[in-house]
Amino acid sequence: MLSAESAAVIRATLPAVGGALDEITTRFYGAMFRDRPELLDGMFNRGNQASGAQRRALAGSIAGFATALLDDPDTRPDTLLDRIAHKHAAVGVTDDQYTIVHKYLFGAIAEVLGDAVTPEVAAAWDEVYWLMAGALIGREARLYQDAGVEPGKVWRQWTVVERRVETPDVVSFLLRPADGRPAPRARAGQYVSVRVRTADGVHQLRQYSLSSDPGGDLRRITVKRVAGTATTPDGEVSGLLHEQVREGDELALSAPFGDVFLDDPADATAPVTLVSAGIGGTPMAGILAHLQALGSTRPVLVLHADRSPADHALRADTRRLVERLPNARAVFWYERPGPEEPEAREGLMNLDGIEVPADSAVFLCGSLPFMREVRAQLLRAGVAARSIRYEVFGPDLWLPGPAA
After folding, report:
1. What distance in Å separates the CA atoms of residue 260 and residue 363, rounded to the nearest whole number?
2. pLDDT digits (tens, 9 = 90+) for 70-126
3. Which residues, other chains included, contact 210 with Cβ-Cβ below 8 Å and sequence gap of 6+?
4. Annotated catalytic residue, options 29, 98, 129, 144
């Protein structure tokens, strides 16, 4: 609960702070990594730092949380907090790191805004920070407890029992716990972090969705090689996994986390709609496999868009699972159709003529532009905003849109 005094100050200063957040977060990360370089070893992804994605995600979460407190001071934005807490737990964030972040973040605020940061302004934003941090600390403690791990100690060695090339830039790895103990509990749609040691000795990590049924002791992740652009580097983790990891090797995986998952008791009957593009089809494959393993009779609609059938990772798996589910059907869109999928539609995903059940639980995954566009189409089709759940690969830049 934000105090009335602080709410007035935050409301007055949010435009100035929000407008300067990019510079504030740039200076924050620069100072923190200068003094605490160990945080780049196994905690923060260097690619996300180089691209600015992590900086934008932090700025967006601060502004989003502050705005939510102003809109309703007596409540907290649970969806935002849950998403961040799962991301934090998947990389092993601990309570003491919030104090480190506070020191450098507020140092950056003072440096950028100067004399505008009066004691009253500093106190109000301090209250916002600790309201957010306290909520996250509590959520992360519960996540660690539910996962059966100590705070921050989320890593476990897994052995690669099979490596399968899915497309020219996508590879799947089937894994088993290296210590012989049972695999941790996971829900269909969740992800794990993978931590690898790079050529310079620094550990880097990345999250990958579980692309198989999470029941049992075998888990699969499906990895797309991230190609750099003129302004961003190649993906370090995906490149290393593609180039170096083979059957018999070991990988460090976190316990499973993620707030977007299918909670599917055996007697569930509500329709499920899985909407994805590109590598966003990986969590959908895991959800389909889970439904098939349960013997589910729920109506299932699978909608996927890709460049071509040859680029569609897990296409054959998806088709096979749809055929095994008694009330499932799939519609694919390809920018370059091929004979492998003669009934596929050409072009980008367009839901005109697609009957999406209004009472369906919708899972959405793909690039941010794709999800914004398709989410708007789903809303126009009568699907309630509260029924649409989405997963973002990488730092969460949030998903603004109608009826958000």
Report:
1. 8
2. 988 777 788 889 999 999 999 999 999 999 999 999 999 999 999 999 999 999 999
3. 186, 188, 189, 190, 191, 192, 219, 220, 221, 256, 283, 286
4. 98
pLDDT digits (tens, 9 = 90+) for 328-353: 999 999 999 999 999 999 999 999 99
Q: What is the pLDDT of residue 267?
A: 64
Please report the pLDDT score of residue 402 as a whole number.
32
Q: Does 140 participate in catalysis according to the annotation?
A: yes
Give the mean model confidence (pLDDT) for residues 163-175.
98
**372 C-beta neighbours (distance < 10 Å), count:** 16
| Phi and psi torsions of 78, nearest 5° | -60, -40
pLDDT tens, residue by residue, 8-24:
999 999 999 889 988 99
> d(Cα 282, Cα 171) in Å, to the nearest integer?
11
Catalytic residue among 104, 127, 140, 391: 140
The number of angstroms, rounded, from the C-alpha of 218 to the middle of its chain's C-alpha atoms is: 22
Q: What is the pLDDT of residue 266?
A: 61
- Residues 369/82/196/58 CA torsion (nearest 10 deg): 60
Closest CA to 126 of 148, 113, 109: 109
Pairing of β 300-306 and β 272-277:
parallel
Q: Buried b / exposed e across 249-281, counting CB within 10 Å, b at 16+?
A: eebbbbbbbbbbbbebeeeeeebbbbbbbbbbb
Percent of the chain that is helix, strand, coil (3-state, to 5): 45, 20, 35
C-alpha Rg value of the chain to the nearest Å? 22
- Locate 309 and state its tokens: 């059938």
Assess contact for 46 and 236: CB atoms under 8 A. yes
The closest alpha carbon to 20, from 127, 105, 132, belongs to 105
Laid out side by side, the sheet with 300-306 consists of 345-346, 328-334, 300-306, 272-277, 361-365, 388-391
